[in-house]
Amino acid sequence: MEYIYAALLLDAAGKEIDEKSLESVVKAAGLDPDEAMAKSVAKSLKGVNIKEVIKNAQSVQAAAPAQTAAPQEGKKEAKNEVAAEEHMSEEQAAGGLASLFG
Asked: Is this model's pTM higher than 0.70 or not?
């Protein structure tokens, strides 16, 4: 997980997310860097717009509470629709996050 955090820090700083940068951030945090893990994460994040992934994840979370406010008479039907929409949202979010882990 520390490599994902390192990637987020590098992205926030506007730095390139590569193997050496990830290792440097992990080392600066007082941990022993793992070359294979750094290489894997860097390769997985190549071409991924992290800011866009975060933005999409936030919009999915913000939409969920609004969908649960259904009138009492159609509450059961609304719950089924909300569950289906949340399932789709989780699948969509998982698709974006899958790219983080290769």
From this structure: no
